[in-house]
TrEMBL record:
SUPFAM superfamilies the UniProt entry points to: P-loop containing nucleoside triphosphate hydrolases
Assembly and binders: Binds to RNA polymerase II (RNAPII).
Iron-sulfur recorded as keyword: no
Physiological role: Small GTPase required for proper localization of RNA polymerase II and III (RNAPII and RNAPIII). May act at an RNAP assembly step prior to nuclear import.
InterPro entries noted in UniProt: Gpn (IPR004130), P-loop_NTPase (IPR027417)
Record protein name field: GPN-loop GTPase 2
Assigned protein family: Belongs to the GPN-loop GTPase family.
Keywords: GTP-binding, Hydrolase, Nucleotide-binding
Gene Ontology terms for molecular function: GTP binding; GTPase activity
Pfam family, one: ATP_bind_1
Cell inner membrane listed as a keyword: no
PANTHER family, A to Z: GPN-LOOP GTPASE 2, XPA-BINDING PROTEIN 1-RELATED
GO cellular component entries: cytoplasm
Length: 121
């Protein structure tokens, strides 16, 4: 399939962009589109989400359970998703034919020093 992995620094508008592209493709062009939220810290989504990592793991649960800070918890969440990538594959299989928008977390260390997000995508 086709799609976009939307990355950028925290607060740069990734989630807003995904919502706008979803509306454009679905409403204006009538194209099947699905947004996949891969940011376990994003708990207020302004778009209709086809797949949400928070169904698998949330940043707040990891912080509470493992007593990690936000960055360590985010890395743990991405490693957990990587270890459970079959969960994501099963969800994506149901979206065959959709244009996929992956709303990714904004922490730069997930892309510069760690391979979990890259391995998942």
């Amino acid at each position: 399939g086709f799609g976009q992995a939307v990355i950028g620094p925290p607060g740069s508008g990734k989630t807003t962009y995904c919502g706008a592209v979803q509306r454009l493709l679905a409403t204006e062009l009538g194209r099947p589109v699905a947004v996949i939220n891969l940011d376990p810290a994003n708990d207020s989504l302004p778009y209709s989400c086809a797949v949400d990592i928070s169904e698998l793991v949330t940043l707040s649960d990891v912080m509470d359970t493992l007593k990690l800070g936000p960055n360590g918890s985010l890395i743990y969440c991405m490693e957990y998703l990587e270890a459970n990538v079959d969960w994501l594959h099963a969800k994506l299989k149901a979206l065959s034919g959709h244009y996929l928008l992956f709303d990714c977390p904004g922490q730069v260390e997930l892309y510069s020093h760690h391979g979990a997000v890259r391995n998942v995508l």
